Amino acid sequence: MASKPFKRSGLQPLGYLSSHDRDPPAERHLRIAILTHQRRSHFQRTANADLFIATLFRYREQGKFKLHGFAVMHDHVHVPIAPAIDQSTARFIQLITLDEL
User: Dihedral of the CA atoms 40, 6, 97, 95 (nearest 10)?
Assistant: First the structure.
């Protein structure tokens, strides 16, 4: 299944770092950085930042991941998480970035 390209004004994952690449899924801890398209100041508008934060909290409450914290900057976000056992890293990034668009 081909992945959908990000919209021009959307978010794109910069990358992620795992605490240990060999950890079993239940013990994965990821530090994810997500950039806005062309480093635009998308989150400078409070409404956009609030929408992103609400999206994080909604999926956290649904048990999709454990949220260890987050930092929302004007053109990127940092999200340290532990995905649920049945969630891949790619699926987590899709949830929070494509929902936001």
Answer: 180
Cβ(72)–Cβ(36) below 8 Å: no
Please, how many CA atoms are within 13 Å of residue 100, restricted to the half-sphere of its CB? 31
pTM of the model: 0.69
DSSP secondary structure code for residue 37 in this structure:
G
Q: What is the sign, positive or negative, of the torsion defined by CA atoms of 51, 88, 27, 80?
A: negative
Asked if the structure places residue 2 within a domain, the reply is no
SS3 category, 69: coil
85 band by pLDDT with thresholds 50, 70 and 90: confident
20-37: per-residue pLDDT in tens?
Answer: 445 555 567 888 888 888
Q: Within a domain: residue 48?
A: yes
Query: Count of domains in the chain?
Result: 1
Give Cβ neighbours of residue 48 (< 8 Å, ≥ 6 apart). Answer: 42
